[in-house]
Amino acid sequence: MHISSKITFIFVLIYFSWNFYIQNGFTNKAIVKEELRLLKEMDEAGSRLEKLLKVEKEHMERLSETMNRATRLRITPNSNNPNNWPHPIPVIVFSCNRPDSVRAHVEKLIMYRPSAQQFPITVSQDCDNESVKKEVEKFGNSVNYVKHPPGESVKIEIPTNLQKFKPYYYISRHYKLALNHIFSNSNNYSSVIITEDDLDIAPDFFSYFSNTRYLLEKDPSLWCVTAWNDNGKPENIDLKSNATLYRSDFFAGLGWMMTRKTWEELEPIWPNGFWDDWMREPVQRKQRQCIRPEISRTGMMKYGKEGTSKGQFFSDHLEKIKVNDLPVDFSQINLDYLQKNEFESRLSLDIRNAVPVDIDDITYPDWKPDYEGMKAIIYYTGRTDFVAKADRLSLMHDFKAGVPRTAYNGIVTCFYKGTRIFLVPDRSKVPGYDSSW
Ligand SMILES: *[C@@H]1O[C@H](CO)[C@@H](O)[C@H](O)[C@H]1NC(C)=O
Ligand SMILES: *[C@@H]1O[C@H](CO)[C@@H](O)[C@H](O)[C@H]1NC(C)=O
Ligand SMILES: *[C@@H]1O[C@H](CO)[C@@H](O)[C@H](O)[C@H]1NC(C)=O
């Protein structure tokens, strides 16, 4: 091809292309503009979607972290241990009108229970609060729900001078209804774990109960296992003794277990009000004891502040109780030492070897034990002396039916400045529990 025809060809090509471009350009301008707008919108939508995905991803990550944590902390029982209770132990959750509290509590129970068959959960509600019911229904068939008519709707005999304590009568009634429901003949449960909707739950809560249950069977001088330590503030416990358990004359409640047999004994005489104080009376207790932990397996959630009896000393005390976060597999530990005679002789030995100390010395800021692992003994000679000394150690100083909280045969033990302390009654002055204290 000659150069001139080449140039002509290129010229013609450019001419037609230009024409084509101009024509389309004019007719499509509006469309292009529209397309650009759409593209921009799509881009924006894209980044919105990306943001949403990011949030979702973070949410999923948090969820799987929680699940991993639960799996890591949840304890699957060692079925080789003959003392790990093989039968189902139902959990009954008492609720009234705190929907958020019920949700948070049941979530934890479900998260930490090793098996739904072994620990069936029933939420029992007496008050008419639809929100509570709705929250429970969200758990689907993971939990059972039972509703009783509210206390206000039935005639309860309340002495005129005690009218202001109405809620305590409603609670007693609710306990009776719910426990009768759990132990009704259609179920053949031999025991029950009782919780309240404002309780926090430790990861090894179920391991604790399923491995102490055999003790209630074996030792008739025990009538309950409680997850709660009344003196369980961080400064009063040995945080390293995460597996240590005790016997106590004091009925603490707040996450506890009893047998069907005990319920069958209490049910016919169950009181109209103040059931927990009633259980602490010598005629009901019959010198029986409870197992309790060094580090609580239950604690108070913030919702507890609104509870019936807890308002006043919630922030001073209840809120500070430490919930165990170093899970113990109790099926790996021999708990026979908690039986009456063995526990008694171990404690006597500890007390014989303990070094007497003066409350003024030990509470002095610079005080240190004489040697590592030293155990100390402080005597008390009466009611006021006990109260004063308990206060100095920041322990609970009250009595129920003459029994100080956590006491075993009058002895209250705690951890203080890295030292095991025994507050021991001077038997020449304090012969035994005195109900007038
Ligand atoms: C349930 O109780 C909560 C807290 O007392 C209250 O805020 C809520 O309105 C109640 N819901 C219903 C449906 O009664
Ligand atoms: C109830 O449970 C016990 C064991 O806890 C068992 O021996 C008994 O056969 C059961 N009874 C019924 C009716 O299921
Ligand atoms: C918690 O208890 C387990 C079992 O007794 C023990 O192995 C572990 O060392 C304890 N943790 C701490 C921090 O003491």
TrEMBL record:
Q: Could you name the Gene Ontology cellular component terms for this entry?
A: Golgi apparatus; Golgi medial cisterna; Golgi membrane; perinuclear region of cytoplasm
Under InterPro entries, the record lists: Glyco_trans_13, Glycosyltransferase_13, Nucleotide-diphossugar_trans
Q: How does it sit in the membrane?
A: Single-pass type II membrane protein
Q: Which cofactor does it need?
A: Mn(2+)
Where do transmembrane segments lie in this chain?
A: 7-26
Q: Which superkingdom, per the lineage?
A: Eukaryota
Tell me which Gene Ontology terms the entry assigns under biological process: protein N-linked glycosylation
Which GO terms fall under molecular function for this chain's record? alpha-1,3-mannosylglycoprotein 2-beta-N-acetylglucosaminyltransferase activity; manganese ion binding
Query: Sorted alphabetically, which SUPFAM superfamilies does this protein's record hold?
Result: Nucleotide-diphospho-sugar transferases (SSF53448)
Using the UniProt record, give the first listed, main subcellular location. Answer: Golgi
Q: Give the EC number(s) listed in the UniProt record.
A: 2.4.1.101
Q: Cofactor note, please?
A: The cofactor is mostly bound to the substrate.
Localization recorded for this chain is:
Golgi apparatus membrane
Q: Which UniProt keywords apply?
A: Glycosyltransferase, Golgi apparatus, Manganese, Membrane, Metal-binding, Signal-anchor, Transferase, Transmembrane, Transmembrane helix
- Which pathway, metabolic or otherwise, does it act in? Protein modification; protein glycosylation
Which catalysed reactions does the entry list for this protein? N(4)-(alpha-D-Man-(1->3)-[alpha-D-Man-(1->3)-[alpha-D-Man-(1->6)]-alpha-D-Man-(1->6)]-beta-D-Man-(1->4)-beta-D-GlcNAc-(1->4)-beta-D-GlcNAc)-L-asparaginyl-[protein] (N-glucan mannose isomer 5A1,2) + UDP-N-acetyl-alpha-D-glucosamine = N(4)-{beta-D-GlcNAc-(1->2)-alpha-D-Man-(1->3)-[alpha-D-Man-(1->3)-[alpha-D-Man-(1->6)]-alpha-D-Man-(1->6)]-beta-D-Man-(1->4)-beta-D-GlcNAc-(1->4)-beta-D-GlcNAc}-L-asparaginyl-[protein] + UDP + H(+)
Is Nuclease set as a keyword in this record?
Answer: no
Keyword Nucleotide-binding assigned:
no
**Pfam families for the chain:** GNT-I
Checking Gene3D superfamilies in the record gives: N-Acetylglucosaminyltransferase I, Domain 2, Spore Coat Polysaccharide Biosynthesis Protein SpsA, Chain A
Q: Which family does it belong to?
A: Belongs to the glycosyltransferase 13 family.
Job of this protein: Initiates complex N-linked carbohydrate formation. Essential for the conversion of high-mannose to hybrid and complex N-glycans.
Identify this protein by name: Alpha-1,3-mannosyl-glycoprotein 2-beta-N-acetylglucosaminyltransferase
- Tell me the lineage of the source organism: Eukaryota, Metazoa, Ecdysozoa, Nematoda, Chromadorea
Q: Gene name?
A: gly-14
